[in-house]
Amino acid sequence: MTSVNGFLKWFFDIGNWLAKVMYIHILWVLFTLMGLVVFGFMPATAALFTVIHKGFDGKSDPAIFKTFYETFKTQFLKANALGLLLLGLCAFLYVDMNISKQVIQSFFVHMFLLIVCFLYFITVLYFFPVFARYKLSYFLYFKQSFFIAFARPFETIAMIICLVLLFYLFTYLPVLLFFAGSSLIAYPLAWFAYRACVQIEERKVN
């Protein structure tokens, strides 16, 4: 009987988690559309990571809609400003890569730019979890994300592996992307970033 109860509890927990994942994804889609996509994507994604991050803290189960809505509303301008900076850096690197490939045609310059693109990529991996955990100035979000990416290489590699696995999962089961895509991407990124932040904070205390 104990094993049956344990199985039922496990089954219930899995079902509850899946329902939560789908619900958060639906909120992300709705709030992104509410901001006409362009202005909704960044604050909705910030709210998505905030809800997930608060769930990891273990202090209390966050009121999902309330947390999502309040984060979207209060961080709307800041999230969009940071998104503009991220987009600007991405566009700058894209233009530089094309110039290097078509005009300069130098192997060393191209390799240097590829390294810079990789550094940008791993910084972005931590960007939203850092935004959800800390209250920083604009520049410090980039600096802190970059620092954590290098300070915790295990978590950074784990994030990249998760993204690769999710890419193949969504390729074979695209319905998951439609019903829970944003949450399934955010959960592993938020989890490994949370582990990285906690480890760094504990090391500073000790």
From TrEMBL:
The chain crosses the membrane at residues 26-52, 76-95, 107-128, 149-170, 176-194. The keyword Transcription regulation does not apply. The keyword Repeat does not apply. It holds the Pfam family DUF624. Keywords: Membrane, Transmembrane, Transmembrane helix. This is DUF624 domain-containing protein.
